């Protein structure tokens, strides 16, 4: 397992990204990694997760995140999340964390090696950084402080790196990292000093002096101080330095002072009449903001590539062209022999674009070849093009490439030239044959999205409605095109409030139409991407209009599309290559909101049978997950008569795997219940819902009521007493646990009779147990006791150990509350005696805890301590709460087990 904190918090297993889930779970993982094998208490984790007083159920939430992480790590033999020392400890090889590797490299560089070795070590250390430390893990004070400490370590290493390069006579090489860091930390004098010295080493004295004077003014305005010793010494060094010698005209670079390869003189005529080097760039993008880290990565990618061939890839509207052109203008001085640019028009509506031969003729003319000397033969044009660029330092920017074949004829044959390609496709062919370096361009961060709005509508309107501005940025999916279209709409309507615009965009039915302009729009951009898809990808994209959520895996995609597993993998690869879905892990994909809305707008072309196949797939998968979560329990419901799954359901080898699947698929499963009800499949709606019970009992306070109410309505519409009984029982218990006792009793009082009508005695037992729990909450202890005794008698008659242990536990708990510890102990011991081998540890903990409490009240302290110790060994630190009965006889206490003390 590879844990990465120096950027967005992430984890990789054999180069496949692990789906960590929400920000709070990422924060928990970050804390455990930073602790380097020492325990982290639940209180410390709670402090990191909330910037205000943690909620009363904070420990339950913490345990849920720890449990989910434990499930994700369960297949990694070298990584284990243990409960010890009053907290949680991540046991993993130290080198599995990028933070450890970074610190080790910096420490080795500080131990006194030669300057060249020190620079190499620090270059490797800084290369581990992928953005803001602890990204995506929340910004609570504790997490922000941890991120600031890591940032401080990076800046110190960067300054050390610059010093090592200067000692090697290569100070200019540090500029790519120093300049953006200096912009983000304009008052850090040691950093500014390093940047000033590196600018001087690059023979850019004017920029060095400008940076010094800007910092001098800023220090005076913000802090009222003058520059300190480090910055002042850097300034004086520039003033007293001798001019840098350059090779005289006609001398080779090998004579006298030898320039680095990136500073070699241009091989072009050095006469007053020589034509200026070509620059075919389009105009610079107006209002370009943010993307600092992407620009830095592009610079690093270009300079480290051999050959220097880079592909900026990303979805339509993400700003690939703007980034490439902005970078080209910023680095134009590095290409003294010119910049060649061609828009390959891969996304023209008719699917055509300029042929390589035509682009070559344009390039040859720009390089000074007269019209009458242009070769008619395409191969001859390629040879002449590469000959003219031999020995030159030029940039070739190929925009909107469709595929690798379109690019290859336009590649120079000399390593001195840099090639930058933009494409909606990943152009993996160029990677394989030409060693291209891919630079995936992500969507804009929220703060940069707001900056885009500022550039169009001004600071005052954004400052007046900051929350609405953030919501607008989120609704535009971080796509610069969508953001600029939204901003253009606001600019044309100066009286339109940002809040009103955000509220309009919330309506999914009109979002795409609002994000369109006079001659462009998000829908048009996506349409062009879809038009270029191969057949399998096009078929799957049409079916994605029917998907119930925004994420899916290969099995769900196969169910939707009706393709074979191999065909589905091909289709997903095609969609991912076109950035119409985003690959999160090896078999999980995300469709961003605007893409999802566009797919739904094309629903007329989808095969409606795909939705039914998808719903059946989720039902079959839910059955498999429930069986693994509570082995030995009776299935909640079978597939409807005559229905079979579209493919083999997933296989879960243990409870942890099944619970991790539930957490990952929760949004899809709850959406599937609503989609089934809306599409006229009530028999699927209620069945999918009841198979959610293993997750519901562990996350009972997590807003399940709307989903269960939809499922109950579907069951009622069928007139199926078995379905109604199960839903009434489960929904009633959820309402009880959330304090809605009146509504709970309304459902629970119906459940036993419905189970009788359905001829389901086990369901009647569960209904009685849950009804008793609700009666107990409203103070009717006598009614609760009567129903629990009845449930225990019925369960014994059934001869089903799972059902009887559950009923005996609840009866024992009632006797304990009623002041009858001897009866409670007898029921608890009986339940432990008949418990099946596969009974969950959670249920066993509850029974041991109840027996221990009964023994304490009977004065048998030694026996009580042994019960508590055995329970504690099984439970570990877990959340508070009582144990519910689930919707069928195999219900468990789930995560609602009290923390036990020996």
From TrEMBL:
Pfam families xrefs: BTAD, Trans_reg_C
Keyword terms, alphabetized: DNA-binding, Transcription, Transcription regulation, Two-component regulatory system
InterPro entries reported for this sequence: AfsR-DnrI-RedD_regulator, BTAD, OmpR/PhoB-type_DNA-bd, P-loop_NTPase, Sig_transdc_resp-reg_C-effctor, TPR-like_helical_dom_sf, TPR_rpt, WH-like_DNA-bd_sf
Region feature (Disordered): 247-282, 879-902
Source superkingdom: Bacteria
Family (UniProt): Belongs to the AfsR/DnrI/RedD regulatory family.
Listed PANTHER family: TRANSCRIPTIONAL REGULATOR REDD, TRANSCRIPTIONAL REGULATOR REDD-RELATED
Protein name: Regulatory protein AfsR
Naturally occurring in which organism (per UniProt): Streptomyces rimosus subsp. rimosus
Higher taxonomy: Bacteria, Bacillati, Actinomycetota, Actinomycetes, Kitasatosporales
Gene: afsR12
């Amino acid at each position: 397992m590879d844990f990465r904190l120096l950027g967005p918090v992430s984890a990789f297993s054999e180069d496949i990204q692990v789906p960590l889930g929400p920000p709070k779970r990422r924060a928990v993982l970050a804390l455990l990694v930073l602790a380097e094998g020492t325990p982290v208490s639940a209180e410390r984790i709670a402090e990191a997760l909330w910037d205000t007083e943690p909620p009363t159920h904070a420990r339950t939430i913490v345990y849920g995140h720890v449990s989910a992480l434990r499930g994700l790590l369960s297949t990694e033999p070298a990584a284990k999340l243990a409960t010890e020392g009053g907290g949680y400890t991540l046991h993993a090889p130290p080198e599995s964390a990028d933070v450890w590797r970074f610190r080790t490299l910096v420490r080795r560089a500080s131990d006194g090696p030669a300057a060249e070795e020190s620079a190499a070590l620090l270059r490797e250390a800084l290369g581990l950084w992928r953005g803001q430390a602890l990204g995506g893990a929340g910004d609570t004070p504790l997490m922000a402080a941890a991120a600031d400490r890591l940032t401080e370590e990076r800046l110190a290493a960067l300054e050390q790196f610059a010093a090592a390069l200067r000692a090697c006579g290569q100070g200019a090489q540090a500029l790519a990292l120093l300049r953006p860091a200096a912009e983000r930390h304009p008052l850090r004098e040691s950093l500014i000093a390093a940047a000033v010295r590196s600018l001087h080493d690059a023979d850019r004295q004017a920029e060095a002096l400008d940076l010094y004077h800007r910092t001098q003014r800023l220090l005076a305005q913000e802090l009222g101080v003058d520059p300190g010793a480090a910055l002042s010494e850097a300034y004086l060094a520039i003033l007293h330095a001798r001019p840098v010698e350059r090779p005289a005209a006609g001398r080779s670079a090998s004579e006298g002072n030898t320039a680095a390869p990136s500073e070699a003189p241009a091989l072009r005529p050095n006469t007053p009449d020589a034509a200026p080097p070509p620059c075919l760039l389009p105009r610079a993008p107006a209002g370009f903001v943010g993307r600092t880290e992407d620009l830095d990565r592009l610079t690093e990618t270009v300079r480290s590539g051999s050959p220097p061939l880079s592909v900026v890839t990303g979805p339509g509207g993400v700003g690939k062209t703007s980034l490439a052109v902005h970078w080209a203008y910023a680095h134009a001085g590095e290409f003294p022999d010119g910049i060649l640019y061609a828009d390959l028009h891969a996304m023209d509506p008719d699917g055509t674009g300029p042929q390589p031969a035509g682009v070559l003729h344009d390039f040859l003319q720009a390089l000074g070849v007269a019209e009458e000397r242009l070769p008619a033969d395409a191969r001859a044009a390629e040879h002449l093009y590469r000959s003219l660029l031999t020995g030159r330092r030029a940039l070739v920017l190929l925009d909107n490439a469709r595929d690798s074949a379109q690019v290859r004829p336009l590649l120079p044959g000399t390593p001195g030239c840099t090639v930058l390609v933009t494409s909606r496709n990943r152009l993996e062919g160029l990677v394989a044959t030409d060693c291209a370096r891919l630079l995936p361009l992500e969507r804009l961060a929220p703060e940069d999205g707001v900056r885009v709005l500022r550039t169009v509508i001004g600071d005052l309107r954004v400052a007046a409605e900051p929350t609405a501005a953030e919501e607008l940025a989120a609704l535009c999916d971080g796509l610069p095109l969508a953001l600029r279209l939204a901003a253009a709409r606001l600019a044309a309507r100066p009286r339109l409030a940002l809040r009103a615009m955000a509220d309009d965009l919330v309506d999914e039915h009109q979002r795409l139409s609002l994000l369109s302009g006079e001659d462009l729009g998000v829908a048009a951009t996506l349409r062009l991407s879809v038009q270029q898809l191969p057949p399998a990808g096009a078929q799957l994209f049409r079916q994605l209009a029917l998907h119930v959520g925004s994420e899916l895996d290969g099995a769900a995609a196969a169910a939707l599309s009706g393709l074979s597993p191999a065909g589905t993998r091909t289709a997903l690869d095609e969609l991912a290559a076109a950035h119409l879905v985003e690959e999160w892990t090896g078999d999980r994909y995300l469709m961003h909101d605007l893409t999802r809305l566009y797919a739904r707008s094309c629903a007329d072309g989808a095969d409606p049978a795909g939705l039914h196949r998808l719903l059946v797939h989720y039902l079959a998968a839910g059955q498999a997950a429930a069986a693994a979560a509570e082995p030995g329990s009776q299935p909640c419901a079978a597939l409807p008569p005559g229905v079979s799954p579209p493919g083999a359901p997933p296989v879960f080898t243990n409870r942890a795997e099944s619970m991790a699947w539930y957490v990952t698929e929760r949004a899809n499963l709850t959406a599937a219940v609503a989609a089934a009800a809306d599409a006229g499949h009530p028999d699927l709606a209620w069945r999918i819902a009841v198979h959610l019970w293993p997750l519901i009992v562990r996350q009972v306070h997590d807003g399940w009521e709307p989903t269960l109410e939809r499922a109950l309505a579907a069951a009622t519409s069928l007139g199926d007493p078995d379905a109604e009984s199960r839903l009434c029982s489960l929904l009633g218990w959820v309402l009880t646990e959330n304090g809605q006792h009146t509504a709970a009793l309304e459902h629970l009082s119906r459940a036993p009779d419905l189970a009788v009508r359905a001829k389901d005695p086990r369901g009647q037992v569960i209904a009685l147990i849950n009804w008793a729990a609700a009666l107990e909450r409203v103070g009717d202890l006598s009614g609760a006791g009567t129903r629990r005794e009845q449930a225990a008698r019925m369960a014994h008659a059934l001869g089903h150990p799972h059902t009887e242990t559950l009923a005996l536990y609840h009866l024992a708990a009632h006797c304990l509350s009623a002041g009858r510890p001897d009866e409670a102990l007898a029921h608890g011991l009986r339940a432990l005696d008949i418990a099946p081998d596969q009974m969950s540890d959670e249920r066993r903990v509850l029974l041991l805890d109840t027996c221990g409490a009964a023994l304490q009240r009977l004065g048998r302290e030694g026996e009580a301590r042994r019960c508590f110790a055995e329970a504690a060994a099984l439970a570990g630190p877990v959340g508070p709460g009582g144990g519910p009965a689930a919707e069928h006889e195999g219900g468990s206490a789930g995560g609602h087990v009290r923390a036990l003390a020996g």
